Amino acid sequence: MNRFKNWSGITRAVLAGLLLGLLAACTTEPLPAVWTPASSGSQPAPGVQGPASTLLPPTRVPGAPIFSPTPDAPHTLPTLRTQTDQYVVQPSDTLGTIAQRYGVSLGSLVSANQISNPNLLEVGQVLVIPPPEPLPPGPDFKVIPDSELVYGPVSATLDLPAFVQQYNGYLKAYSEDLDGHPYSGAEIIQRVSYEYSVSPRLLLAFLEYKSHWLSNPDPQGELRDYPAGYVLTGREGLYLQLAWVANNLNRGYYLWQVGAFSSWILADGSVVPVNPTINAGTAGVQHLASLLYNYTDWQTAVTADGLFATYQQLFGYPFDLAVEPLVPSGLTQPLLHLPIEPGAAWSFTGGPHGGWGSGSGWAALDFAPPGDALGCVTSDAWVIASADGLIVRSADGAVLQDLDGDGFEQTGWTLLYMHIETRDRVPIGTYLHVGDHIGHPSCEGGVSTGTHVHLARKYNGEWISADGFLPFNLDGWVSEGQGVEYDGTLNRNGVVIEAYAGRDAINQIQHD
């Protein structure tokens, strides 16, 4: 079985299709505000080549057997506890989150502590944490390759609106207002895809598997308001449902990569040890399904007759589209600079944290501009380009810079500058050099409690952790995490700057 190998050398020769883009939780401009090679009025700088319009080559002989690839070498997983433990309840804890943290069912936690009302916990209460009572390990069946979970290279070949229009289901005519603008079903899927960097094919396959929105023109009951099966008041509608799906696909994917899972806790309380030979993409699917299904239905959802079969029916064998390695070993970061102008001291306010949403890799760092004012205030300080590259998205607080110049954010290195004010924000199609103006920091886009810039990296659509195998290096300042989201340091030549959500001598940083 063949797959795409050495992707970095053939990127421009295989991309075709439609690319839309928009990233924000709060929209201020209509979709799209994104670079596409055919867009009028915005052209790349001289010498920047757009991708060739060629079809993807076949990777498997027609009629050849379809099977799940050979399991990977066993992944290192946490060891399941065999002893009783204790836990002191902290503010914001729930029994559900405690059970998830310790890999036990909610029922066993309630029983071990003789809790009459699971909704009532007291801060400081000491809980007995029984050891897990696991079922046999989960299946080793691979559902999708890693490159079909992320918004990666092959995502650029899908004409999403045209694909949706082929089907006469509810999705075809669906419309939803987001931030004062009407969005079609296809536009919502596209938006979720690039916000969370999750494959639109996978989102479509899941939507069809769970609620048949592609094939059923009239879904009934909860399937109409909660097409992902996440039934919670205030989370109705396609956008919020798919945002939850994408966030949890990412959670399974990125936490699997760092060995954070030893078991899945299913919707019926069953504890299923993770099979150590699955890949990260399959871990994302297994985690998502664990939140929705009992043991029997989960086993179906994550094996050959489940989501895999729906994906195959819609798009063909998923491993035919595998890009391997998605993130090559030995990958190095391009030369990057601090996104702040020389001469001004900014505050390093956020160490490694989610690139987008709580489930993504801890791909981002935060910097707040000079000044004494707190909260969401107007700043005339400039965020500057950290590298040379083409602006392929600029809307709703987000600016996305493509560093390889092919006009696609799904390939190679890209930088996300988030919370960039509309005023003076760089337009799409602009080619910037290091130090050129991106715009002013603000609270626009996403969720923000204070004016700042959020800087994150992706490679082939995968969020690159700021405290993982390839930490940020900005003018020699190297990021390091402390094991807690937003905690971290920047280190250069023995000098350490500590992340702090305010202004203090410990977090001041200045561009040389």
Task: Write up what this structure looks like.
- The chain has 512 residues and is an alpha+beta fold.
- It folds into 3 domains: 87-128, Membrane-bound Lytic Murein Transglycosylase D, Chain A (Roll); 139-324, no CATH class; 345-510, Glucose Permease (Domain IIA) (Distorted Sandwich), CATH 2.70.70.10.
- It has helices at residues 11-14, 95-102, 106-112, 160-165, 170-173, 185-196, 200-211, 222-225, 238-257, 280-290, 295-301, 307-315; strands spanning 4-5, 85-88, 126-129, 175-178, 181-184, 263-265, 271-273, 323-324, 345-353, 364-368, 383-384, 389-395, 398-402, 413-418, 431-432, 437-439, 453-459, 462-463, 473-474, 477-481, 488-492, 495-498, 508-510.
- The strands form 7 sheets. Strands 9, 10, 12, 13, 14, 15, 17, 18 and 23 form a 9-stranded antiparallel sheet that branches.
